[in-house]
């Protein structure tokens, strides 16, 4: 179904981002509804423009130097003033990812390298019309998972894992994300392998996953692809603290 919905768009490769096991542990009806919602921006550009306009409005009141311009039928453009030498482009991406996840109840998903052409003095975001509106219970648990991990609140993290149906995959997630958060190297192969193992563990535990994992997984995969292409290592813990410290 996913392949059919994104066929003919530049999101055809989305079918490769998540393990096939994922689609075996998500309720079929919920998955179908989520898929249609995520790609609805292709069929209704005005709907996508509404989402982009709301993101821009929130950005204007944030501490991030990110703005969305050219909100018209021709596409969406986010202008990010070029960071100084102490802040790499990947650091900007990580902060934008965490800000959007915590500040909004909807999200633009396209963080791929091709969505960020880099002129001389600004970074411009040209996201494809793929977006999500988070289920309140899902996004609350996802936020608590990050908060629990980065603030060393094991109780909060365990509760979030349980609400997300990820308890069986905890050891795999901690092995992948739990070390050297001040110098993380992003690799798509590692991303795919880790979440394949997580989903296998959840399948064996007969867990059921929320359809919103498709949107979150797609956004993370885009982020990984871009950061892998940029190369280097990143202080993810610091990026999280810079953006999310006020919500602790």
List the quaternary state of the chains.
single chain
How many helices does DSSP assign?
A: 11
Relative strand content: 5-15%
Strand order across the largest sheet: 1-2-4
Low-confidence stretches: none
Number of strands: 5
Q: Over the alpha carbons, how many angstroms does the gyration radius reach?
A: 17 Å
* Structural class category: mainly alpha
**How would you state the average pLDDT, rounded?**
81
Molecular shape? globular
Helix content: 40-55%
Distance between the termini: 39 Å
What string, H for helix and E for strand, traces the elements in order?
A: HHHHEEHEEEHHHHHH
Main β-sheet: number of strands, strand sense, barrel status? 3 strands, antiparallel
Describe the structure.
With 248 residues, the chain is mainly α. Helices cover 52% and strands 9% of the residues. The protein is built from eleven helices and five strands. Helix 8 runs antiparallel to helix 9. The longest helix has 19 residues. The protein is globular, with a radius of gyration of 17 Å. The model has no long low-confidence stretch (mean pLDDT 81).
Give the tags:
248 residues; 5 strands; three-stranded antiparallel β-sheet; 52% helix; mainly alpha; two-stranded antiparallel sheet; 11 helices
Topology (SSEs and partners):
Elements lengths: L1 H5 L21 H11 L1 H4 L1 H16 L6 E6 L2 E7 L7 H15 L2 E3 L13 E4 L5 E3 L2 H15 L3 H11 L5 H8 L10 H17 L7 H19 L5 H9 L4
Antiparallel strand pairs: 1-2, 2-4, 3-5
Helix pairs in contact: 5-10, 5-11, 6-7, 8-9
TL;DR of this structure?
It contains eleven helices and five strands. It has helices at residues 2-6, 28-38, 40-43, 45-60, 89-103, 136-150, 154-164, 170-177, 188-204, 212-230, 236-244, and strands at residues 67-72, 75-81, 106-108, 122-125, 131-133. Helix 5 packs across helix 11, helix 6 (136-150) runs antiparallel to helix 7 (154-164) and helix 8 packs antiparallel against helix 9.
């Amino acid at each position: 179904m996913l392949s059919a919905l994104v066929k003919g768009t530049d999101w055809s490769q989305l079918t490769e981002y998540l393990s096939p096991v994922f689609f075996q542990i998500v309720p079929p009806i919920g998955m179908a509804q989520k898929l249609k919602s995520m790609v609805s921006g292709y069929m209704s550009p005005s709907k996508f423009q509404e989402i982009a306009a709301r993101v821009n409005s929130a950005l204007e009141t944030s501490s991030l130097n990110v703005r969305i311009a050219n909100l018209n039928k021709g596409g969406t453009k986010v202008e990010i003033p070029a960071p100084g030498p102490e802040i790499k482009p990947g650091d900007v991406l990580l902060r934008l990812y965490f800000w959007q996840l915590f500040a909004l109840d909807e999200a633009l998903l396209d963080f791929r390298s091709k969505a960020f052409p880099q002129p001389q003095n600004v970074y411009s975001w040209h996201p494809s019309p793929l977006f999500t509106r988070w289920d309140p219970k899902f996004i609350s648990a996802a936020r608590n998972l990050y908060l629990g991990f980065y603030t060393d609140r094991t109780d909060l993290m365990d509760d979030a894992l349980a609400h997300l149906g990820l308890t069986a995959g905890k050891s795999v997630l901690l092995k992948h994300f739990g070390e050297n958060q001040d110098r993380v190297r992003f690799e798509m192969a590692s991303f795919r392998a880790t979440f394949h193992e997580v989903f296998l563990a959840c399948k064996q535990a007969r867990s059921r996953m929320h359809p919103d994992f498709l949107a979150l997984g797609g956004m993370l995969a885009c982020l990984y692809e871009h950061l892998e292409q940029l190369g280097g290592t990143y202080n993810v813990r610091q990026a999280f603290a810079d953006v999310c410290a006020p919500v602790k």
